[in-house]
Amino acid sequence: MIGSSIIVSGVIWVSLAKGKVIESSEINLTEYDQTLYRLLSISAALFAGFLNCMRTFQAKYISGKSGYTPLDFSVDAGLLSGLCLLVLAFYFFFVADDPTYTLYNLTIATVSSSLLMFTSLIGLNAMVKGLAGPTSAIINTNAIVQIIMNAVILKMVPTISQVAGSCVAISGVAIMMLWK
Fold this sequence. Notes:
The protein has one domain. It has seven helices and no strands. Helix 1 runs parallel beside helix 5 and helix 1 runs antiparallel to helix 7. The mean pLDDT is 77.
């Protein structure tokens, strides 16, 4: 519980830290809009954590009663979601003729969604066969990965606050791993 709390604190710290904003001629956000989007992203992350909790509940308890295994459920849900999103992607690509939606974007979306489904299955398997709380907390440290990717790909140097929040979250993971 202590490690999970430390991780959540670190992730929130990273999320609230003000980093460099990518300048764009098309996007002109006010300070209020940036704060609003930051709070919306934190809310979305908390909602995703709630959905992970419900998914773990389904996987551990409901599957025992119905016989619908967690892997089957995840694959079926992923396939259904993927088909729905594929229909939307084809709509934007072919029907709406959106100039910003290229074949390159469609390919990147397909590859990234496949990787997301793969990691989702690994995470669910770890939550079902291990401790759900610590596994979920560690999975939700993706803000740290995002900071690293921004630094490497976009050449955006993280702020001291982002680095400190990342260190707090990593220390929470270390506490969870070492504290038995």
